[in-house]
Each structure stands twice: as C-alpha cells, then as structure tokens.
Write a structure and sequence with these properties.
The protein is α/β, with parallel strands linked by helices. It is built from eight helices and 15 strands. The protein has two domains: 119 residues, ATPase, nucleotide binding domain (Nucleotidyltransferase, domain 5, 2-Layer Sandwich); 143 residues, 2-Layer Sandwich (Nucleotidyltransferase, domain 5). The structure holds zinc ion.
C-alpha cells in the first residue's frame, strides 16, 4: 500500500516461548529489517523489541502474534507456565513506547492470517491453521474473520480417543491425554524416550498419524474448513502429511468430505509475516 508515493510499513512480532521474531515491512517480498532473539525476562525482551523498531524505518502499527494463552482485549499473556511471563502485559508497553496502534492476537491466528493473505489459504474464508511442535496450537478463520470468541481457540486441548494399545498417559499438565498430551512433539518424546526426529519406528509414526487425524476430524466436523494448513516441527517428518491425510479420510468414514490438508507456504515465517498482516489490516478482536 502506498501513501504519497511511500510504501506503508508495519511491524510484526511473533512471540514464542523460546524466541521472539520481529520484522518491519509490507509483505513477504518487502521486508526491510528483521531480527530474532531469545525470550528472556519480560521487561528485557520487550525492551529489545522496542529498540529494534526504533532503529528501523517508521512504522504505522505493530501486529503481535503471541504464545498463549492470552487475553486478547488486554493484549496480555495470561496463565502460561513460562517462568516470569504469567499475566504479562505485552501490547501495552510496546504501543506506549513506539506510539503506534498495536493489534494483538495468538501466534496461530497471526500465522493463519499470513497464510490467508499470501500463502496456502489465499482466497479461502473458512480454514484452520495448525502447528504441531512442542505443543499443538490452532487458529483460523470463519467467513473471513479470525476465530475469536469468549477467548480464542485452543485446538491442542480437544479430547480425542486414547488408543487402547497406547499405555502412555499423556503429557498435558492440565488434561493428561488431550490431543496435545498425546500427539505433540513433547508427547512423542516422552512416550518413546527420545526426540521425534530420532524415531524411525513405523508403528510410532502410524500412531502419530492416527492421533493427528482424530484431532483434525474434530476441527472438520465443527468448523467445516475449506482447507487445513498444518505445519510445525513434527510435521516435517517425511510422509507424515500424506499419512495424516489418508487417516483423516478413514476417520471421517466417507460421511463428511475431507478438506485438503496442506503445509504452510510461508513457513517458517508464517507467524511474523502474519503479524505484519495483522498490523496492516488492523482487525481487533470482535
Ligand atoms: Zn491439554
């Protein structure tokens, strides 16, 4: 977008439990500056982001895609187990320091918006974006609006049937064997005693594909997404996306149509580009 011959620039921040990614730009091909740094104590981390944006070209607004859970209206992280971060106001200090509007959402809703604007969900009004890594997170859109409600979706904590042949009790500190507790990278590592990328046992990956498909089936039945975009470290396993797609068909049993299940096109920048899209679009939680 141009104003008086000048490209409008926006700031994007993807905050994660281990690192923050910040960028200034207008779109995937128009990034002027970017940086990543480890997630340290809140005040220090926020100050580092503010310093980055102060040193960059002038921005119109900042979008933040945050790890959660979050309070969307306050722009704050809420009950995270991340030490020092529970009930931390993130949007407030950044907006005050930079003097620009801040649009705050979950990391997965930001990534969903990025994929909607420039990636795998272009042209789709209703879709789901999921990431399967140390946890499982999900966001998306319904009829062109990012999914918000009482709070925000927590796809990772839907309950799925626990395979009777799987003795692993689940790794979620809140629910044990919820979807994240059974199928996240953390769960895989705890069940098999080594990290997911070191596991080659076909039975381990067949179980993973089944568990992932069961969670996707819940999303399909509730939201009727036109597409499921699914990424994250666990999904980088060769052949897993195809196995999950096949299992999803089987779980749905021919009664409900399976949407396409695809990888994100902007990865690993879906979140930070989505945060720029959030800032440019200026959508506040409904
Ligand atoms: Zn859970």
């Amino acid at each position: 977008m141009r104003r008086g011959g000048r490209v409008r620039l926006y700031g994007g921040i993807e905050t994660g439990g281990s690192k923050w990614a910040c960028a200034v730009g207008s779109d995937p091909d128009g990034i002027r500056a970017s940086t990543t740094f480890p997630t340290a104590a809140p005040a220090e981390t926020i100050a580092r982001a503010v310093a980055f944006f102060r040193a960059a070209d002038r921005i119109e607004a900042v979008g933040i895609g945050s790890f959660g859970p979050v309070d969307l209206r306050r722009g704050a992280v809420t009950t995270t187990p991340k030490p020092g971060w529970a009930h931390t106001d993130v949007a407030g200090p950044i907006g005050r320091e930079l003097g620009v509007p801040v649009i705050f959402d979950t990391d997965v809703n930001a990534a969903a918006l990025g994929e909607h604007r420039w990636g795998a969900a272009r042209g789709l009004g209703t879709f789901v974006y999921l990431t399967v890594g140390t946890g499982i997170g999900g966001g998306g859109m319904a009829r062109g609006h990012l999914l918000h409600g009482l709070s925000h979706p927590e796809f990772g904590h839907v309950r799925i049937p626990h395979d009777p042949a799987d003795p692993f009790p689940g790794s979620c500190p809140y629910h044990g064997d919820c979807w994240e507790g059974l199928a996240s990278g953390t769960a895989i590592a705890a069940r098999w005693g080594r990290p997911a990328h070191d596991i080659d046992d076909p039975a381990a990956w067949a179980l993973e594909a089944r568990y992932l498909a069961l969670g996707l089936a819940a999303a399909v039945c509730v939201l009727s997404p036109q597409c499921i975009v699914i990424g994250g470290g666990v999904m980088s396993r060769r052949g897993l996306l195809e196995d999950v797609t096949h299992e999803l068909d089987r779980v749905l049993g021919g009664y409900v149509e399976s949407p396409p299940v695809v990888a994100p096109e902007l990865a690993p920048r879906s979140g930070v580009l989505g945060a720029i899209a959030l800032a440019a679009r200026g959508e506040l939680p409904a």
